[in-house]
């Protein structure tokens, strides 16, 4: 999926929207997924500018901008937490310094997170093996900008229930990732049914996902994972990389939800991402009706439509968990969604 740049001259037209999220630990000992959201990204950008002695004079602040991000950590939560706490600020700094392209700002911010994290770990805790995926969506009026590293997918759901993928998962099963990995001296192996251990790709029946070596990861891009990237720690440069892909589109008028999930959710949708439409709609509608009829109340400090969006996310997460292949193991299962109320043709409460 090719990278594209943001379109100049964005219309200030804004969607009536709300953000919902839900994170489930599954059967894992720790929760390594995380989300970061900001429904009023312009105000946050102005705060970042002021705190860093900068200004937003060259930035058109009339379009509404909404930010959502999901991270799926592995081998511990430390890398995920580091990036989660800093990515919004870093994107703002990159855009303020060079206004005009959100894809460029997101790309630079992700690579800066990689540089800072790897330097920090190499200097202070080289035993830290943690890493994370990251998928970001910025809705600027009616333009959607995505950037991603790893396999946490983003997709659109329209009112007909059709899912449109915004991202391609960075996994070793992807042909262009295979070519890149092998050119860099890495290997792709899979565990096979016959015998034990890992075998080279091809010619054998596979059991489980393809994995990248050196690393053993079933993703081909990530932030962190320094043990697999730094030669002096046993890694190999250019095999597992942090470089993100980006994509920008004008949002179709029938899109109701913009969803980002961890693979613990999306991998359980074995019939395709379109399976997500009914449970997310059901969760939203059930919550909306319960509020309207006085059967439920939002949490303290929570807006009614935020309550509906969170219940929509929770509904989809539990649907995916029930669809899981194993009752004994379930990965962290999380999602965040922008719910476009005007496209849903639903009146705010």
UniProtKB/TrEMBL annotation:
Domain PPM-type phosphatase residues, every copy: 18-340
Organism domain of life: Eukaryota
GO MF term (any one): protein serine/threonine phosphatase activity
SUPFAM superfamilies the UniProt entry points to: PP2C-like
PANTHER family per the UniProt record, alphabetical: PROTEIN PHOSPHATASE 1L, PROTEIN PHOSPHATASE 2C
Pfam families to which the protein is assigned, alphabetical: PP2C (PF00481)
Protein name, as recorded: Protein phosphatase 1L
SMART domains reported in the protein's UniProt record: PP2Cc
Gene3D superfamilies in UniProt: PPM-type phosphatase domain (3.60.40.10)
CDD domains named among the record's database cross-references: PP2Cc
InterPro entries membership: PP2C, PPM-type-like_dom_sf, PPM-type_phosphatase-like_dom
